[in-house]
Write a structure and sequence with these properties.
Length: about 120
């Protein structure tokens, strides 16, 4: 007889097992649409909406890279609804990610490790 699932053992919400939920999913798994560049605090972040070619869900991707600093590249990618994606602006992208129950992240800043997290993350150099 199996024990009831504890809170910690529950899978995170909105997970379907699709490839797009992996931090290591390649860009070729998505159709990307540029949202623009977020210049907040000089970040010049690249903001895109990515649609998974397999399950067709939308992801908001936020990416920074500081040429003056090695291993500064980092990105975050979180689910976004069709409605929110339609009204998304570069400046609102970080707020959207911070409000999610989880999002994916990775990049050279994290030694190339990709994972899943929630809450604000450091975007400055
Ligand atoms: Zn998918």
């Amino acid at each position: 007889m199996s024990a009831p699932m504890t809170e910690a053992a529950k899978p995170p919400p909105h997970m379907t097992g699709c490839i797009c939920e992996q931090g290591s999913a390649r860009f070729t798994e998505f159709d990307a649409r540029p949202v623009g560049c977020d210049e907040t605090e000089g970040r010049f972040a690249d903001v895109t909406i990515n649609r998974c070619r397999t399950c067709h869900r939308l992801w908001l991707r936020y990416l920074v890279e500081y040429e003056a600093f090695s291993r500064s590249g980092r990105w975050a990618r979180g689910l976004i609804s069709e409605e929110a994606a339609a009204g998304m602006t570069p400046e609102r992208a970080v707020d959207h990610l911070n409000g999610l129950e989880w999002y994916l992240y990775g990049g050279s800043y994290f030694d190339g490790i990709a994972g899943r997290r929630s809450g604000p993350m450091r975007w400055g150099p």
